[in-house]
Amino acid sequence: MTKATVSTEHQDYKVIHDGNVASAKGFSAGGLHCGLKYKNLDLGWIYSEVPANAAGVYTTNVFQAAPLQVTQESLKVENKLQSIVVNSAIANAVTGKQGLDNAYEMRHAFADHLSIADHYVAVVSTGVIGDQLPMDKVKKGIQEIALEQPKADHFAQAILTTDTCTKQVAVELDIDGETVTIGGVAKGSGMIHPNMATMLSFITTDAAVDQSALMELLKGTTNETFNMITVDGDTSTNDMVLVLANGQAKNNKLNADHPQWPAFVSGFHYVAETLAKKIARDGEGATKLVEVQVKGAATEVAAKEIAKAIVGSNLVKSAIYGTDANWGRIVCAVGYSGVPFSATNIKVAIGPIVVVEEGLPVPFNEEAAKNYLMKETVQIFVEFQEGEGTATAWGCDLTYDYVRINASYRT
Amino acid sequence: MTKATVSTEHQDYKVIHDGNVASAKGFSAGGLHCGLKYKNLDLGWIYSEVPANAAGVYTTNVFQAAPLQVTQESLKVENKLQSIVVNSAIANAVTGKQGLDNAYEMRHAFADHLSIADHYVAVVSTGVIGDQLPMDKVKKGIQEIALEQPKADHFAQAILTTDTCTKQVAVELDIDGETVTIGGVAKGSGMIHPNMATMLSFITTDAAVDQSALMELLKGTTNETFNMITVDGDTSTNDMVLVLANGQAKNNKLNADHPQWPAFVSGFHYVAETLAKKIARDGEGATKLVEVQVKGAATEVAAKEIAKAIVGSNLVKSAIYGTDANWGRIVCAVGYSGVPFSATNIKVAIGPIVVVEEGLPVPFNEEAAKNYLMKETVQIFVEFQEGEGTATAWGCDLTYDYVRINASYRT
Question: Is A406 a known ligand-binding residue?
Fold first, then answer.
């Protein structure tokens, strides 16, 4: 719980140096190796000292994995959670009745270990589809979980699959004179496409937050952040985002009527957006984060469709990998996004370099564009004069390594 | 016009050995180098001795290229075409007023050269977006077109961009005691995604066909063939399919009331499907043709969505490249296709190897599956018990070479 805040650039909140999912009061987290992976950590846990108001959003894939069903059952009882247990390497998806039984057993084993009610536990899995969990290993691992030896970094590691790095962030802000902290962690590298969260993320806060306000906040924020990233257009069977608010900061309960609700929303949004961008940047094989900003579309929905079409285009992604300012592919993606617009008023810029104006190419310095595209973060701006719709989407470049990783992931 | 027919496997038509777009009576075609490419042929033409009933389908991309606008204008006048002129290397897309003027000029130059009316000429371009056509080169090339020295192979070469091979086919059948021939040619390697034809194809027949029947036939067939292929999910600005029926076979005019209409439809469908599969197999960087057959879906639309989701999945495509029988990714794609269904009745087979039954994995011989996936054509079968909806989609694997080609195409 190091709290050396380093940033003062935001009005409403400060970013905590090395902040993580256990930065908020009353939360702890850890991870260990139980034998699902060859060597790396593969079993993680998050714990709150008290049951926390909780909410979740889940994949829209028809083949929703067993743990998602069990977690939703947990939440239905009181809309509260006290702990989360996650395994990586095996998704427990498309595993039928036995998979469901295993998810219940995994939940019960952890609840029993903690001496709390089953419905205070969320179970989560990520990894290969179709294999059954080796429950002996999972249960033995759960027995070894020691709440008194937490290490949030180990949790962040334990949930990874093809990810190359952990993804954590936390902010703090003042609510009712109390310091409120919001921390989060995420994983996700392939099977990433905007349609519900398409990855895993867990966000914790010690703020007291009204349960229905928390659910609305999670849904709204997810639509602006996790649902605006794409790596490969494949929406996974296992993705979810959970938020836990345990009230340990002792602020007055937050909801939309609280005068500092906007500040809390802004901090929460920062946490979610930061995690979403970390996921996009760590897309399988990626060398760059790509951010597409759309302005002036007829509606927000239109802006989102256009932003996602560009960031999802294999041709745009390949061109960015090749540092080729191929604006034609950007315009082409805009054209097939399914959104009607006047082709004569579009403006496109690659970073600071305007490449299309009033629907027509403008001369630009190819060398400068190539240099810009070598950066680790590439921004694409598309502007219409159709209305007020704006949106931002995030993705990554398409590289040889994406193919390498996915031609050999399972075997 | 070699007509050594080699196949008798089809009831209604025979496949012509080395058949092409000029196999039908009264058609000729050729190609030459006019200087848009460094060395390869880049200007192609098709000519019919008489004006032919014609129909076209065009990309749904909002940025429809200039030549598509001009060709549609040509067709509007009489629904007849006598010739087609195509350049490769430059798409004449997103080129504004000057691009449109150039397309008109290109049409006029060819009409003038042939001494026919402008509206009997279709103009077509494919290549890089945003560059203007160097009209001096194009017009000089058109002047050099010699109808008396046709070579259909040269046409097939002249329309290629990143394609690695030409794509041609023809069939013949008996209608009213007359031999009727249907021939076709296509190009298309990247920016391929089912939404209108997303590539170029030209189909010619010497059959006499009623114009509105021809249009319906083209639309219906395109939806079952060209619109069911995907290489990378990117719908181009320039794609079109044109059909010309010049009546030189002297059959009674065909329409839906003609007793042999079904035979003609079947031959036409074979030509379109063969070209579509050739395009998919030659997808940028592809090493394999992937065919996905869906049966028993609630509706045909549902079957199509599911087939296209599977064949379009980067993860499925990468797994096939890696000869990994990763059925989990197939099931995952089915799950996010947007089509509701019962997850417990799905059956999946990779070639002859059943991998999922009643929604659950079944044990299979991994070695046999790996061997099957090494074939040049990979079939995936997905079966539901929801209704009578069936569909077939075609695509290719995703390889290092796709990335290589597209990271460096423009520059």
Answer: yes
Q: Are residues A245 and A294 in the same domain?
A: no
User: Does A275 fall in a domain?
Assistant: yes
Residue-wise pLDDT for B137-169, tens only, equals 999 999 999 999 999 999 999 999 888 889 999
Please report whether residue A9 resides in a domain.
no
Cβ within 8 Å, pair B324-A61: no
- The CATH number assigned to the domain holding B308 equals 3.10.20.340
* Distance, CA of B11 to CA of B127 (rounded, Å): 39
On whether the CB atoms of residues B352 and B377 are closer than 8 A, the answer is no
B102 within some domain:
yes
CB contact under 8 A, B334 and A235: no
Q: Which of A76, A143, A55 is nearest to A106 (CA)?
A: A143
Q: Tell me: do A241 and A196 sit in the same domain.
A: yes
Which residue among A228, A251, A281 closes a domain? A281
Q: Say yes or no: B65 and B175 in one domain.
A: yes
Q: Indicate if A59 and A79 belong to the same structural domain.
A: yes
Closest approach of A370 to chain B, Cα-based (Å): 11
Residue after which a domain boundary falls, among B261, B281, B301: B281
Same domain, B224 and B312: no
* A94–B356 C-beta distance less than 8 A: yes
What CATH number has the domain bearing residue A117?
3.60.70.12
pLDDT, tens digit, 9 for 90 and up, residues B64-101: 889 999 999 999 999 999 999 999 999 998 899 999 99
Q: Which residues of B are catalytic?
A: 198
Asked whether the predicted pLDDT for residue B367 surpasses 70, the reply is yes
Decide if A387 is inside a domain.
yes
Indicate the pairing of strand A289-297 with strand A377-383.
parallel
| pLDDT tens per residue, range A204-232 | 898 889 989 898 988 888 888 887 776 66
Q: Is A284 annotated as a binding residue?
A: yes
Catalytic residue among A95, A126, A181, A198: A198
Domain that holds residue B274: 14-281
Q: Is A390 annotated as a binding residue?
A: no
Of B319, B335, B399, the CB nearest to A63: B335
Do B315 and A195 make contact, defined as CB atoms within 8 angstroms?
no
- Same structural domain for residues A401 and A300? yes
Res B398: pLDDT = 87
Least CB-CB distance to A190: which of B237, B315, B340? Answer: B315
In chain B, how many domains are there? 2
